[in-house]
Amino acid sequence: SASMSQACSRKLQTATREKLRRLNSLRGREVLPGEFWDVVAVTAVDGSQREAYELQIREKVERKELPVGVQYKVFSDPPGCKIGNGGSTLYALQHLNDIYGKALSNMRVILIHAGGFSQRMPSASALGKIFMPLPLGNPIYQMLEFKLAMYVDFPSQMKPGFLVTCADDIELYSIPEEERVSFDKPGFTALAHPSPLSVGTTHGVFVLEPRERSSYPEMENASCLCFLHKPSIDKMRDSGAVCANQNGLFSMSDIEFVYTDSTYYMDFKTAKSLLNLLNELGPLNCEIDAYGDFLQALGPKATMEYTKNTANVTKEESGLVEIRQKIFHLLKGTPLNVILLNNSKFYHIGTTSEYLFHLTEDEAFRGELDLLSSAFSVNANENFSGCCIMYSVLDPSCSVEAGSVVEYSRLETGVSVGGGSIISSCWVSPGLCVPAGAFMHTLCVTHQKQISFVTVFFGIEDNLKQSVASPTYLEELKLFGLDLAKCLSHWGMENERLRFSGDASSCSLWNACLFPVCSEQQSSFSASLRMLQAILSGSTSPPPRDAALMSMQDCLQRKNLEEMLKLKRRLHHDINVQLGM
Question: What are the transmembrane regions (predicted)?
């Protein structure tokens, strides 16, 4: 019922407030032994991303945004082929073992998977999803401290080992006051959330011992028979994963549900055996999934069948089946304990549309987190209902329509932003109008040894990953729903051969060289906006004369990290001055 669901939401809100309060009391303070994580480890996709993460974490510690006296470590995947978050987990364990040796057996470590180019959320590509801002807290929260807040109660209830989690999801849960989520059993212990069956098809699903239920406590411990990775609904039914929802399970209205995965813990002994496996395997040459490939080996009913199923693997690798079988034999018989968080919610914020929805529209989410419409911003007044302004300076005469997010930006006199858009790290000149449904993001790059700026623009719904085999198939790529060949004609570029950066056999919006390189942040935004307006209005507006054109992929390879962080610091300073802080 609606009132039941509201009561559950209120419980989540109260529990979340308490966790945020606890983390706030630790921000900028030296933590006591055993009070917090010994190590906060973050994974990165390569050396350049690692450097970006390290610089940002150092700055956050200096600004008292994170607890002090904790070891913050960033580990990058080795160069070469993709190894997946499972591969990253194995290498992170190895790095930690190299650094701490024997001492590691007494440490509590949180391992946050944050590697990747964030192609579905390009505003986070340069600086990382783990540093996405959220509109709450003072100083304003980023995803990193939000994750730390949600798990703030865990370290003190945990035997030495590793908590494995992802950078772009948020789990909210409430438990009875006298109880604790504890990680003190051998093997793996996973958090589980009741979800509709449709959600189960894109997640991991736990199969539990069948039992009769008359009511549901907020939290209970169970042991898992086996784990299914992204199963079909038929597979869930055949495996006995589907639970009947008798007399109302907290905020679940569906008559049936499954328990899906999120974050899990492994004790030190289990981690140690995975580490031995890595030494035995030698350098990895395929993608391993930290959920599918580890957890499917667990539980008394686990079978080897999954090791041969490479249907949802990006590149079928002959090596993968062999590695999965080795992991299976190594982990077989390891217990998989599950903590059923019956009043919990799992939110994913990995795409531009999810970001917009959760920050501007989703009343439940905004209520549970106490999100603001404006955080750490100047002149973000009541004209902006239904949108979200963070870390920005706006002129009082600006207008931003509902459903839009403005972050790390400056908007001058008379600027208007249409609904459902994302404006990220932009400096928008007076009087400009940004259309609805637009994604615009300015990156700082080094071009011909000069500091330069590129503003990329896409439609919120555009698929940057979709690729065609060669530039002859341009019309299959859609920018704002218009085929790319048509867009080129609006920019007077129909007679030139469009360049694609990187691998020539894959042409996508991600590596299409469309965006002009400019010498200033403001002129960069204006130039790109003119090109965007031309395709939307059907007029012609070529890019600035003699401007080099870059792709999003180019921008990341040539990003000028120091300059981007310097611009953020300047913005931070200006906001503080204007807010009189």
Answer: none
